[in-house]
Design goal:
The protein is mainly beta and 191 residues long. It has two helices and ten strands; from the N terminus they run H-E-H-E-E-E-E-E-E-E-E-E. It starts with 10 loop residues before the first helix and ends with a strand.
Amino acid sequence: MASDDDLLYDSIKMGWAKYGVTLLADQPYWLGETVRKAWSQGDLRDYFVTEEDRVAYGYADDVIHYLSSGGTLGSTAVSNDGDVPAYPIWTAVGPMTAVSFGVGGSDIVVPFDIPEGYAVQIDTDPINGQVLWYGLWDGSKITDPVDRTAELDPASKFVAIPRGQDRGLSIAMTGTGAVMAEVRNKYRRAW
């Protein structure tokens, strides 16, 4: 207590004093269940059928081409029944030469290749920094992550799923890796 405080009573003799207190909660919301979804590319084969392919896949002798499915993994809707916007955490696990993902058509484009055994992860929540981490993937997390945020495409957008709404997720990639989205809805009260 500073000597210039204006006290009506000596707090040591009275046992109390009025003080202004400001409280800040780092995470003021109750968190709902984590919703995780994953997508991976289907059966990718070479366009030109080789003799090895004929043996491995059982092609007829007159087959010379094989058409794999396209590079777009499709889209799905994610609901936010929470009280505030929910920001997804995206993880892309290689191998892939191109990948983009996003909410409602606002995509994040990863501008570099992701080799097999490596991954990138970005938490789009502005409170958590929106950093693009890159490193070895151990099956559940990135070990020794490196910050590669500066390499992100400047047109990339970090978009939330508004409260009480459904939003479509869009995913596109070239390669045989996987893309995962994780969303946790936030509530103002526990009931």
